[in-house]
């Protein structure tokens, strides 16, 4: 017996699951859509077992479980269990300078104060699913994404403990939040980080990132998602939402990146959706 409640919070989907006496399996590389997501699960009551890459672990109340489904996994519920799940696109993590791949499922226990705060915030967001407006839920979902470094970055990458890596992460998160602002510049980003533009540029380039190239890359990726999700959107409106000064400039940059115009890209996704609908 099980029940499932799912609601969108911007790019993140919040799922509330009640399950008992059943198993859920996701095969390795089940689909491109699954491979492009990352899951965070919080057991609030009951208990479940998790199998991935030949390892089995027990997840108890208070634990947070980070899963990359590209490796396939199996979850088993031998008693009544409630699980709150964050289903997040890896592209959104990349925009924030966070790791997108987790080789094996990992448990973040309640001992860490930061993990505890993160857990309570996610449960707070889940408690407002279906009650708050879509706009507010989107903002809360973005905050969950911003906080994901608590779970996935600092525990695997020794360099993430350095001051420069932390500052670079903050810069990338700042860029992601202001991607629709056409006046966004290195100077403005640096000012909000209380550092000089030259220092910010040197720091990011040391990590292989040019500040404004990163901005342009995120703008184009954001535009591609908008066109794929809503292929009927006016091109000028998409350009504006992604921080481009005008539609012509946006179209040239988009074609250089994706080898097709925004209209062609949107038409392709519209046709693909139509084929999928007919096939169902």
UniProtKB/TrEMBL annotation:
PROSITE patterns with a match to the protein in the record: HTH_ARAC_FAMILY_1, HTH_ARAC_FAMILY_2
Organism superkingdom: Bacteria
Protein name, UniProt field: Helix-turn-helix domain-containing protein
Domain named HTH araC/xylS-type: residues: 169-268
Record's keyword terms, sorted: DNA-binding, Transcription, Transcription regulation
Keyword Transcription tagged: yes
Organism: Paraburkholderia edwinii
InterPro entries (UniProt xref): AraC-bd_2 (IPR035418), AraC_XylS_family_regulators (IPR050204), Homeodomain-like_sf (IPR009057), HTH_AraC (IPR018060), HTH_AraC-typ_CS (IPR018062), Tscrpt_reg_AraC-type_HTH (IPR020449)
